Amino acid sequence: MSHLPATISARTDQFLRRAYALAGSSETQSLYDEWAGAYDTDNHALGYASPRRCVEAVIQNMQSARASSDKLKILDAGCGTGLVGDCLAQSSLADKFVLDGVDLSPGMLAVARKKGVYRELETANLNERVEKPDGSYDVVVCVGTLTKGHVGPKVLAEFARLAAQSGLVVATVLGEIWEIGGYKTEIERLRNVGMVQIVSTEEFGILDEANAGGRMVVLKRE
């Protein structure tokens, strides 16, 4: 956890260590249900920048002109307490989107629901098929979930399935598992089979004062 600041609270340190050592969906759900009430406070104290930087990546890669005047349909996969929803609501996309979220933890979803940003919030295990039709969303985002002990690289194909033609998938991947975890290889496979175009996979800072720690994956659905 070298990308973390030297001084963090004992509670945050404990939760992060447990999160990086997870083994299985039941254990994951229990941890995040337990963390839900303090999750926003802890991440704000850390200077957690990934949600904001993901939203910035979405805005930067949106087509300058959309054929439809309809609002953007966005899926927040692994939405947690709704940090991405908070950032979207404060961005230039405010009032220009409808947002759905899925997460494994009912406790986290309960916090997200109170924010009033999401249209629908449902429990889902991202290591399994998401029960939504192909091409349902203009944008699929996933922040902080492609990390140690959480969700493997095969979910990227599921995100691409859920994205409409020419839609975007914007996902953060923990830098230290980018290659060894198989995410880089899976993205290249999706490109090679003609499912996506790789727009960028740039390194970015997952904390406010950092310029490293993660990869910001931006894919365009073919």
From TrEMBL:
It comes from the Eukaryota. Transmembrane segments: none annotated. This is Methyltransferase domain-containing protein. Residues 74-167 form the Methyltransferase domain. CDD domains: AdoMet_MTases (cd02440). SUPFAM superfamilies: S-adenosyl-L-methionine-dependent methyltransferases. PANTHER family: METHYLTRANSFERASE (PTHR42912), N6-ADENOSINE-METHYLTRANSFERASE TMT1A (PTHR42912:SF93). It holds the Pfam family Methyltransf_25.
